[in-house]
Amino acid sequence: MDQYLPEKVNINGEQFRVYLTQEEIQQRLKQLGQQISQDYSDKKPIFIGVLNGAYIFLADIMRYVNIPCEVDFLKLSSYGDEKVSSGEVHDLKNIDADIKGRHVILIEDIVDTGLSMNYLYSKLSRLEPASLSIATLLHKQDATKHDVKIRYTGFKIPDLFVLGYGLDYAQEGRNLGQIYILEE
Ligand code: 5GP
User: Fold this and answer.
1) Residue 31: which CATH number?
2) pTM score of the predicted model
3) Residue 148: is it exposed, middle or buried by C-beta count within 10 angstroms (0-12/13-18/19+)?
4) How many structural domains comprise the chain?
5) What is the distance between the terminal CA atoms of the chain, rounded to a whole angstrom?
6) What's the rounded mean pLDDT across residues 125-152?
7) Within a domain: residue 164?
8) CA 42 – ligand 1 centroid, Å
9) Residue nearest to atom 19 of ligand 1 (CA)
10) Which of 35, 40, 138, 166 could form a disulfide with 56 if both were Cys (CB 3.0 to 4.6 A apart)?
11) pLDDT (average), residues 62-74
12) Residue 125, pLDDT above cutoff 90
C-alpha cells in the first residue's frame, strides 16, 4: 500500500497544503545521514529523540546512518491543541540511558522559538556527555528567539504552522507521509 500523501488536508476546519514532498524529505535525510556518519565515524553516538513529533524523523534518519549507534527518547510537554507555543516547557519523560562521556545527538522535529532546545541543551549538558549536538528536521529561523546551536538542519521554513511526517495538529496528521503547511 502507498503512504498517505493527499494534496490537501483539513483538520479542525483549517486547510493545509503540501510543502515538502516525501521525496524531498528522504533526499535530505540521506545527505544528513551521510554527514553524521562521517562526522562520527570513529564514535558510537546515541540519538535522543524528542517525543512525540520526532519519532518518524528519527526512525528514518537513523537508517541512513552506517556507523554503530544507539537510541533513546525523552518527552516534553506539547503545544496542547493550539498552534502557538504556551511559552513553558515541562519534562514528561526522561531518558533511561547514562549519557556521561557519550556523544549525544538530540533529534527534534522542529525548532520554533528555540525554547525547548535551549532548555534540553542545558539539561543534557549537566549530565556531562562527551559532546552534544542538535539535529532538527525543520527550523523556523525567523521565529527563533532563544540561543540554540543547531548542527544539522533539514529545512529552514517560514514562520507558519506545519504538520505531517510525525508533526501533529491537535494530535492529528502525524501519519501523513510528507510535510504540510497552513494555507494563508
Ligand atoms: P519551541 O520550543 O522551539 O518554540 O517549539 C518546539 C516545539 O513546538 C516542537 O517540538 C513542536 O512540538 C512544536 N511546534 C513548533 N512549531 C510547530 C509547527 O509548526 N507545527 C507543529 N505541529 N508543532 C510545532
Assistant:
1) 3.40.50.2020
2) 0.96
3) buried
4) 1
5) 32
6) 97
7) no
8) 33
9) 161
10) 166
11) 98
12) yes
